[in-house]
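Format notes (please read before filing issues)

Several people have asked whether sequences and structure tokens are stored in separate files. They are not. Every record keeps both together, in the order shown below: the sequence lines, then the token lines. Line labels are part of the format and must not be stripped during preprocessing.
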Amino acid sequence: MHAIVLLWQRVPLLLRAIVTGLFVAAIGAGPWPVLVFCNIKLFPSLPWAVLAMAIYLWLFWRYLQGEWWPPSTAHWRRQSLRAASLSPQVWRWSLWAGGLSLASLVALVLFARHLVSFPHERSAHVAAYPFFSMLCLAIMSAVVAGVVEESAFRGYMQVPLEKYYGPLIAIVVATTIFGCVHFSHGFSLARFLSAAGFGAVYAILAWRTGSIRPGVLLHVSLDAFEFCVRSRVHLPMPQALPIALSDPSLWVNLVEAVVLAAAGIAAFAKLRAVVEASPKLNLS
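Then the structure lines:
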């Protein structure tokens, strides 16, 4: 065992951080597809998988925070998760900065859909199943994505990279890997840039605040809205060029993206001032 640890420590930190983050993501999200499949096949009218996954996520989060065995890694796990408690003022400006930036990216994605094609994501035919069960499963899917991905990418992957390479390289690497992981939803440059853009907001927010907590809340909220809409509503795609250029919504989306981006940048500037004036963060 000691030899394995020594061998692992000789691996370049960049590779160690990436592998660790992907491992945490796989361990955290792995049980959920299995539970959803079993729930749909067995007693679909009762969303029992939600409770089972909630318990698993609670244990997952506590362990990453440094609980339980082995005690020798407790401090490392707690520091890697970066789940510091924040003051109300930092929370408020974190949500403003992150929320406005994410809204800007949503508008930008809607604008881009007029110009380029996004791959259609595979989704289950949920109309055949009870609405309440599908709603609960969709919301829990968002919770799983938010908790696990923020812990893995903005925590265990990004934290060691920040310490060794600095925030810029850490954010670029974590964001790039995050975008690549989303190729599972469809292989395209548009899909990659979309996921990477959202990932960059979460990454900057985690670095600026010293905590993944605001990113978790925003990530869960955005994904919950997306999953619920996608599972219940068929959204018509914009027509192909050149007809799309005459669609007023194209330019409305572009203006929205620019205005919201400017507001988000201003909010991040305020967040920086608030964080610098705040007392030291509590990692417990």
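For reference, the curators noted about this record: DSSP finds eleven helices and no strands in the chain. Confidence is low (pLDDT under 50) at residues 234-240.
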